[in-house]
Amino acid sequence: MDIFCISGLELLTNFLNKEKVQFKLIDWAKCVILMVASCVFYYVVAVVFGAPFLQHTNETFHLAILLTVTTVLPCCLALGTDIGNWVQVFVLNSYEVGGPLICYITSIMAVLGAWVGAFPIPLDWDRPWQIWPISCVIGNLIGYSGGLLLSSLYLLYRYRLLNKFKLT
Amino acid sequence: MFSGKKQIAILLWLITIYIIGILIFTKGFLLKRVVVNNNSSCDVDFSLNTDDHEEEGCWMHKRFKKAVIIINDALKYDFLKFDESYKLNDTVPHFKNKLPFIQHLLHRSPKNSMLSKFMADPPTTTLQRLKGLTTGSLPTFVDAGSNFASSEIIEDNIIDQMITAGKKIKFLGDDTWLGLYPGRFFKKFPFPSFNVKDLHTVDNGILKHLLPELKLKDWDVFIAHFLGVDHCGHRFGPNHPAMSEKLLQMNSMIRNVTKVLDKDTVLFVFGDHGMTRTGDHGGDSTDELEAGLFIYSPEILTATMPKMDTRVLAQTDLVPTLSLLLGVPIPYSNLGMAIPELFNHCPWSKTATSEMRQVYHVIKALRLNAHQVKQFLKSYYEISTEFPQQTYKELENLFEHAESDLQKLLTAMVTDGETGSVLTKMIKLRDHYEKYIEGSREMCQKIWAKFDLVSISLGLIVMFLSILINLYFYLAHKNEESISPISVSVMIASSVIVGYAFLQAFYIGDFMNPFMVYLFSLVLIVTFLILIKKNINLKEKSKGDRQATFKLPSFDNIIATFILFCYTAGYFSNSFVVFEDTVTLFFAQSLIWLYGIKTYLSNNRNTKDQKFETTFGRHKKQKFDIFEKLSHSNFIILYVLLTCSLLFRLLTNFRVCREEQMPCNETMFVQPLTNFTQEESGLKNVRYFVSTACLGMFVYMSRVWMKHYGNLNGDTATVLCAKYLLPFATVCVGLHWAIQALPPVVLDSLPGWQQVMMAQIVYISIISLIICILINPLCLYVLYVHRDNPLSVPNMAISSPQIIPQVFNQLKEQLSSNGQAKYERPPVVYGMGTVYTTSVLYVVTTIGVLLFLLLGDGLSPSILLASVSVFLFIEIYSADVSNGAKDSDVTTVNWSAVVTLGMMTSHFFYGTGHQATIPSLQWNAAFTGFYGDFNNNILPALLMIFNTFASNIFMGLVCPLLVFWPKLYTRLNSLMCKKTHNKEKGKWRGDFVFFDDGEKLRQIFYQLSLAVLLFSSIKLFGAMGAAGLHRRHLMVWKIFAPRFIFEAVGTIVSFTVSFLMYLFVMRVDNSLSKFVKQF
C-alpha cells in the first residue's frame, strides 16, 4: 500500500512541478467522494463476481480499496475530476503521452490482474495465498507494477520516436 | 447463399456426426465387464471332506438349515446403530435410535448377534445392488442405465445355488426381484416398487403375509424386501417424523420375526444402500454407500465377542458368508470374503475354549473362499487379457505360499500339538488368505473400470473433426465457397470416415487395425484446417477491398473465445469441476460486464462527433444537476448492468452442495414443502407464496409485454390460448404445488388421480398451447378500416407502437400490382412489429411454465431471476447492436453474445439446484403428474431431462431473441442509447424488417444454430478430453465421468432445442409470408 501512496505522491509532485495543476479544495472533495463511491462500486462488483456477501467483508473491502488506489487515485491525480478528461482517455483513447497514458495502462492492467488473480482460488493446493482475496490482491499488484513497467517502456519508445522526428 | 433445405441438411448432418462421436467415445469409456458363464458345483477338489460333522453340505458343513433375509431398502448404518450419547429428554433426529430392539438383542446375546457397516459399491441403485448382493460381483458404471428395465441375471448367483441345493425360497416384497429371478421362488408375494410416493403399500403387504408365512415352515430361505424406508427418504428425507414412524414399524417387525425363529435359522437384516441427507441415492458418496447389516440367530453365531464398531464389511461379503453358512457352493464369480467372525465358532469342535481351533475354523472357510476366487480369476484371465500381469502373478504367489504354509502347519499341528508358535503362524496364515481375497477384489475393481482406448481416441478425433467442420461452416456461411465442389467432396469424405469410425468402434474393432481410420481422419482434419485458413484469408481479401474495414476478430470476440477456452481447460482440473458453479458465475459475470463496457464504449464513441462538445465541453459552464447526470444514458447502462448481474448473482442461493464442496450450506429451496416440520409452517407458507408469486410474475410479464405490443388482440386460437389457457395452466401449477405441500397424511388419504390431476391438466394445456402455436404461429389481428369509418390511424401510430400502418403502406405498394385492395385505406394490423418476437416469446413462456412445474416450487424464484437477467442482458446486447448499426441493417449474431448466453446457461444449471453428480438428480421430477406405474421408461426419462437440463432448454429457446430484440428498440433500449432512432420519427418497423429478406433471415438463424452447436460442442470436447485423459484418475468416477455424462446429455439437448427453434422460426416466416399474401 505504502509503495502506491508514494508512487501516487510522486505523480502528484511531478504534475505540480510540470503543469502546475491547481488543486482546489472542491476538487479534493470531489476526489474523495469519487474514491469512496468507487470503493463501494468495486465491492459490489467483487460480490457480484462471486465473493462471499456476508463473510470476509473486511477482506473484500480491502481489495476494493486497493483497486481504488491502483485505478481511481492515479487517475484523479493525473486527470483531475473533470469527467471530460476521463472520457477522452478511457473511451476515446486520445490521451496525451505522459501521465494520462500511464494511468490508462496501469488501471486496465490492475483490474485485469485482479481478475486473473481469482483463477487459482478453487484449486486444491491448500496454499495460504489461495484464500480470498489474497491472490486477487497479488494479481492486482503484479498487474499494476506490470502496467507501470509497460507504460514506462512505451513512453521511452514514444519519446525516442519524437526525438527522431525532431532530429530529421 | 443456399436454400433452406440445404441448411437443414447440413445442420442435421453436423448433429449426426457429433452424436456418432459421442457414441463412439461413450462406448470406449463406459465399458461393461465380461460375464463368466461358469457355475460352481458341489464336487470340487479343494474342499476337505474329512472333518464334516455328519452334517450334509457342499464344500463345508452347514451351520444353519434355514435363513431369513430381510432387506430394508436404504437402511443406513446410522439408523441401525443405537447412539447412546443422546439423553432421555434430548430431541433426537427422527432417524436416530428408532430401532431399539437391535440394541436390545446386541446387549442381551452378544454372541448371537452382530451389527456392522455394510458398504455398498456404487452405483447405489436398487437393481445394481441386488445384482451385487446375489452374485457377489462388482457392478460396472454402465449397468446403472438399465435400472428401470430389469433383466434376468444369468451369471452364477446364490439364488440358483440354493435352488440347486434343493432349498425352497419364499419371497415377499419389491417386484424387482422377479425381474431378476423369474420363476425361482416357490411362493411369492410381489408388490410394485416404482411409485416412490407410496410409503405403505409394499410394507403393509409384506407385513400382512410375513408372520403367517414364516410360521408355515415350508421354506428354507425366506426373503423379504421392504421399501418403506427408501420411499420415505425419497419423499421426505431422513429427518422427518414419517421416517421415525417407519423405522419404529420396522423395529416391531424385527421383534416379531426374531420371536418365531427356530434354532437352526439365521436372520440377516440389512440395507442395500444408504441415503444422502436429502434422502436420495444412486451415487457414490459415503452417505449413500454406508448401509447397515445386522445378523442374528437363536444359536451362537460367533465364539468371540466381535468388535464390529470399527469393522467395515463390503456387500459382496454377504454371498460367500451365506453360502458357507448354509452349506452351498460359493457362486462362481463371487469376489467377496466370508465374514471371518462368523466362522470362528463350530459347535462340533472345541472352538469355545481353544483359540487355535477358532482360527483354524476361520482358515477353513477362508481357504474355500480363496480357492473359489482363484478359480474365477483364472477363468477370467483366460477370457480377457486385461489383468495387470504383475499384480496377477503376485496374487498367485501369495496364494501358493498360503497353501504350502497350511500344509506345513497341519503337519506341525499333528506332530507338535497346539503350541503358541503354531497359533501365531495360523493367525498369519489367516491374514494371508484375507489379503489374497481382498487383493483380488481390488484388482478386479481397477480393471473393470477398463477403457477401450481405440474407441476413446476415435471418439475424440471424430468430435474434433466435427468441431472443425462446424467452425468452417460458421466462418464460411457467407461465401459461395462453403458449398463448392471441394467442400462437398470433403464433406462426403468426412461422412464416410465418420461412418467407418463408427463401424470400427462398434462392429469390426476386434479384427481390424484402426490405423486407417486415424490416418484418414488426420488427413481430413488437415484439409479442414486449410479450408478454414483459406476462408479467413478470403474474408480478409473481400473486405479489404472495401476500405479495409476488416480487422482481426473484434475485441469482445477474442475475450469471449479466451474465456470459453479457459472454461473448457477447467474441465481438466478436478478442483475446477468441483467448484464449477463459482467458475461459471465468474466467467458469466465477466462476459456480462464485458458487454456492459462494450455498450458503454460504443454509446460514447457514437456521440463523439455530435454531442461531445455540448456534453463534455470543458469550458462550458453548466448548471450541475444531479438528476440529469444520474438519468444520463451512461448511468442507465450502469443500472441495467448492475441489476442484471445482481439478479444473476442471486442464483447462487439455489445451488446445492456436492460432496467435495463441504463445508457448504445446503439451500432450503430444493427441499419439498412437505419436508417442513410443524414448527416451520410459517416459513413453509412464505416459501409457497413467494414461489407462486414468482410463477405469476413470469407469466404476467410476458403477457404485459405481448399486450403492450398488441399481440393479444383478436380471436384466433393461438391468441385465445395465450390469453386464457396459459394463465389457467399457471394457476394449475400453483394448485399442484399447494396439493403437494399438504401434510403427508392428508395427501395420502386422497385418491391417486386427485393427487396428480393438476399436473396432468398442466401437461395437457401445454401440449395444446404448443400445437396451437405450431398450427398458427402468428399473433396478429387485422382490423379493416372502412372508408366511412374515419379512424385516425396516423395519430395512433405515433402515440403507441401498436399500429404500424406504414408497414402496410409499403406492403400495399408492393402488392398492388398483384391484386386490388378491397378497402381504400390499408388495414391496420396489430402486433406486426413484434410478430417474430412474440412467437418466440410465446414458446419461451409456455415451456417456461412446464419447467416451473417440473423444477418444483422451491426453484421457481430461480427461473424468474434467470429469465429477468437474461432479458436485461439481451437489452444490453441490443443497445450495443443498435449503437453500432443503422436501422435498416439486419445484423448477424455476435459470437460473443452466444458465448455469454451459453455461459449463463452453464451457471443456470447450478442455479436450478443441480450439480454434475448423480446423487443430485432430482428424482421427484419423474413422478410429477404421474402416480408411479410407468409402462416404459421413456416418459420419466423425458421428465428428468426437462428437469435436469432446464437451463439448456430455456436458453436454447431464448437464443432467437438475440436476433429479433435489437430491432424492437424497446423503451429501455432508447434510454440506454444516446443515439435517436427512427422510432421517434415514426418509422419504427420492429422485427418486421426481417421479413424483407427471407433469405437473410434464414442465413442468420443458420449461423446462430451453428454458433450454438459450436459453443456446446467445444465444451463437450473439453469434458470428453478430461474424462479420457484422467481415466486412471482417483476421482474419475466421482468427478470426470459424471461431468462428461451430464455434458453429453446437455449438449444433445441443446442441439435438439436449437435445431427445433431454427425450424420454428422458419415456420413463422413461412406463415407470415402466407399471411401477407392475403392482401
Written description of the protein model:
The complex is a heterodimer of chains A (168) and B (1079). With 168 residues, chain A is mainly alpha-helical. Chain A has helices at 2-18, 25-48, 57-79, 83-91, 99-117, 134-167. In chain A, helix 3 packs antiparallel against helix 5, helix 3 (57-79) runs parallel beside helix 6 and helix 5 runs antiparallel to helix 6. Chain B folds into three domains: 2-27 and 538-611 and 629-680 and 700-780 and 831-1076, no CATH class; 67-85 and 97-330, Alkaline Phosphatase, subunit A; 782-830, no CATH class. Chain B has 39 helices and ten strands. The longest helix of chain B has 42 residues, at 1036-1077. The chains are: A mainly alpha (168), B mainly alpha (1079). Chains A and B meet through helix 2 and helix 4 of A and helix 19, helix 20 and helix 23 of B. Chain A: Pfam families: PIG-F. Chain A: This is Phosphatidylinositol-glycan biosynthesis class F protein. Chain A: The chain crosses the membrane at residues 32-54, 60-80, 101-119, 131-157. Chain A: One of its GO terms (cellular component) is endoplasmic reticulum membrane.
Number of strands of chain B: 10
- Please write the string of helix (H) and strand (E) elements of chain A: HHHHHH
- Please state roughly what percent of the residues of chain B sit in beta strands, choosing from under 5%, 5-15%, 15-25%, 25-35%, 35-45% or over 45%: under 5%
Rg of chain A computed from alpha carbons, rounded to a whole number of angstroms: 18 Å
Main sheet: strands, sense, barrel of chain B:
8 strands, mixed
As a percent range, the share of strand residues of chain A is under 5%
Radius of gyration of chain B: 35 Å
Multimeric state: heterodimer
- Biggest sheet layout of chain A: none
Number of strands of chain A: 0
Largest interface: A-B, 19 and 28 residues
Q: On the 0-100 scale, what is the average pLDDT of chain A?
A: 81
Structural class of chain A: mainly alpha
The level of helicity of chain B is 55-70%
Q: N-to-C terminal Cα separation of chain B, in Å?
A: 29 Å
What fraction, in percent, of the residue positions of chain A are helical?
over 70%
Number of domains of chain B: 3
Decide which structural class fits the backbone of chain B: mainly alpha
- Note the total helix count of chain B: 39
Low-confidence stretches of chain B: 143-150, 543-551, 609-621, 787-800, 817-823
- Let me know the average pLDDT of chain B: 80
